[in-house]
Design brief:
heterodimer, A: alpha/beta, FAD/NAD(P)-binding domain, D-Amino Acid Oxidase, Chain A, domain 2, 3 domains, 7-stranded mixed β-sheet, 12 helices, B: Alpha-Beta Plaits, two-stranded antiparallel sheet
C-alpha cells in the first residue's frame, strides 16, 4: 500500500502530524505497536492550559481530570513555596483518553490509523528510503510513503534505522516510576513537588491530583543512579507515612532530559517528540514540546509535498533549533546547575523565595528569582552559591 | 577489559516501558509487544541494568558459557 506520509507512533507528536497532514489533503497512515492507543502511559499527565488553543486541541472534559491553579514546592527540610494563581494554570489529563482522542482527530481529518502494528524495518529502493515494513497481528505489511515520521517514543528505532543519531548518554535520561493512587492531605488544586538529594536525586517526587483524593504520585531520578526509581518512591511514601495500598495504576518509563537530537531529518525521515529527546530537561514534561515540534514538522512536510521537494524537510531541523531548541538548551543549562545543589542549598533557596515577592516569582520572572536569591546574606557569604546562581543568569 | 555479559530480563517485573531500548547505545534491545535482546550487538556497558526504573534487568557474565 502507498501513502504520502507514514507516521510511526500514536502518542502526542504522531497524531498531531497525522491530523495536520490529513487536513492539508494528504494520504496519511499512522501506526502504533500498542493495541490500545494511550495505554500504558509513561507520564505524570500534567500540562499547561495554554496548549489547547495553541495547538488547536478541543478542551474536552472527557480527558480532563482536574484543573490546577498552581504549584507547591517542598525543600528537603520541609520549607514550602506556594505559587497559586487566580486562573486555571494547567490541567491533569487522562492520557489513555487524550491520546486516543488525538488519534481520533487525525482519523476524522482523513488519516488511516492502525494500532497493534509494529514497525520492523525500512524499505530501501535505489538508495532511498521508500517506506516502512511493519507487522500487524503477525502479518507483515509493506507501507510505501514519501515521508516517514519517527514519533515512536523514547525507545525509537525508526530514526536510528534511518541513520539519525538519537543516542544520548544515560545521565541525560531520568528513570521514572509512578502510582496512580488514592492519597489525602494535599491541596488538590495544586501540583506538589518535593526536592532533595535523598528524596529524588537530580529529580523530584510529584503529586499531580486527578481528584480530591486521587493523584499521580511519581518520581524521576537520574537514570545512572545505582538505585531504582521505584526504590526512591517507595522510600518517600514510607517515610512520609503515606499508605500505598489503594493503587489504580503503576507506570514506568525513561524520560529524556537533555541530549536533544541534532539532525532531526535524514532524507525523507523526520524524528519528533521523545524519540528526538524533545523534552523539558528541568521538569521532564514532553507533551507541549512534542506538540510544538509536530507543528513545525507538519508545516515543512506540507511544503515539501506541495513543492515535491524533500530537501525542504531539513528546514524542520533549522526552525526547531531556532525556536524550541534554543529555549530547551537554556533549560538544560539550568538543570545542570540545579543538580549541583546540596540539600542545604535547596532548603535555603526555597526558604528565601517563600519570603520574597511571590507574585513576581509566580509570574515566572526567572531573572527576579535569581536576583532575590543573590541578595540574601547566606548566599552572599558563599562564593560557591554565588557562582552557581550566576551561571543561571 | 569489560567483562562480557548478556542481559536477562525478569518478565514478572518488566513493564515493557522501553527505557532500556531507548538508552542502549547499540540497538541491542528492542521493546515491542515483547522484550528482545541481541547478544551480538551488546557491548556489556550495562547502562540498561542501572537505568531500569524497576530493576528488571540483570547482567549475567558470559564467561564459562559456550
Amino acid at each position: 500500500m502507498r501513502y504520502d506520509v507514514a507516521v510511526v507512533g500514536a502518542g502526542i507528536a504522531g497524531p498531531i502530524i497525522a491530523r495536520n497532514l490529513a487536513r492539508a489533503g494528504y494520504d496519511v497512515l499512522m501506526i502504533d505497536k500498542k493495541a490500545e492507543i494511550g495505554s500504558p502511559k509513561r507520564c505524570g499527565e500534567g500540562i499547561n492550559i495554554g496548549i489547547f488553543e495553541k495547538y488547536d486541541i478541543p478542551y474536552d472534559r472527557r480527558f480532563i481530570n482536574r484543573e490546577i491553579y498552581g504549584a507547591k514546592l517542598y525543600s528537603p527540610s520541609g520549607y514550602e513555596l506556594e505559587l497559586r494563581y487566580k486562573e486555571v494554570s494547567g490541567v491533569i489529563i487522562e492520557r489513555k483518553v487524550f491520546d486516543k482522542m488525538l488519534a481520533f482527530y487525525a482519523a476524522r481529518a482523513g488519516a488511516d490509523v492502525w494500532p497493534r502494528t509494529e514497525a520492523t524495518g525500512l524499505i530501501r529502493k535505489g538508495g532511498r528510503i521508500a517506506g516502512i515494513r511493519a507487522k500487524h497481528e503477525g502479518e507483515p505489511v509493506e507501507i510505501e510513503a514519501d515521508i516517514i515520521v519517527a514519533a515512536d517514543g523514547v525507545e525509537s528505532m525508526v530514526a536510528r534505522w534511518a541513520g539519525i543519531n538519537t543516542y544520548a548518554p544515560p545521565h541525560e535520561f531520568d528513570s521514572a516510576y509512578e502510582y496512580e493512587m488514592l492519597i489525602e492531605g494535599y491541596d488538590p488544586d495544586l501540583i506538589h513537588l518535593w526536592f532533595g538529594n535523598e528524596v529524588a536525586p537530580r529529580g523530584y517526587v510529584w503529586v499531580f491530583p486527578k481528584d480530591e483524593d486521587r493523584a499521580n504520585v511519581g518520581i524521576g531520578i537520574n537514570s545512572d543512579n545505582p538505585q531504582t526509581a521505584k526504590y526512591y518512591l517507595d522510600k518517600w511514601l514510607r517515610e512520609n507515612g503515606i499508605p500505598a495500598r489503594k493503587l489504580l495504576e503503576i507506570n514506568v518509563g525513561a524520560v529524556p532530559v537533555g541530549g536533544f537530537v541534532k539532525e532531526l531529518v535524514k532524507d525523507n525521515v523526520l524524528v519528533v517528540g521523545d524519540a528526538a529527546r524533545q523534552v523539558n530537561p528541568m521538569h521532564g514534561g514532553g507533551m507541549a514540546e512534542a506538540m510544538e515540534a509536530a507543528t513545525i514538522a507538519s508545516r515543512w512536510m506540507i511544503k515539501a509535498l506541495e513543492e515535491e521537494d524533500m530537501s525542504l524537510l531539513k528546514n524542520y531541523t533549522r526552525e526547531w533549533w531556532e525556536k524550541d531548541g534554543k529555549r530547551l538548551e537554556k533549560v538544560l543549562k539550568v538543570r545542570r546547575v540545579t543538580e549541583k545543589l546540596t540539600d542545604e542549598d535547596l532548603d535555603l533557596f526555597i526558604q528565601i523565595l517563600s519570603g520574597a515577592d511571590a507574585e513576581k516569582i509566580a509570574g515566572g520572572n526567572y531573572g527576579e528569582v535569581i536576583k532575590a536569591l543573590l541578595k540574601h546574606p547566606k548566599v552572599l557569604l558563599s562564593p560557591r552559591r554565588i557562582k552557581l546562581l550566576k551561571e543561571l543568569l | 577489559m569489560v567483562e562480557k555479559v548478556k542481559i536477562v530480563m525478569d518478565e514478572d517485573r518488566c513493564y515493557l516501558c522501553g527505557g532500556c531500548a531507548g538508552m542502549c547505545p547499540t540497538l541491542a534491545i528492542n521493546v515491542g509487544p515483547k522484550w528482545e535482546f541481541f547478544l551480538d550487538r551488546c557491548i556489556s556497558c550495562k547502562i540498561c541494568v542501572t537505568a531500569c526504573p524497576v530493576g528488571a534487568l540483570k547482567a549475567v557474565p558470559l564467561e564459562g558459557e559456550s
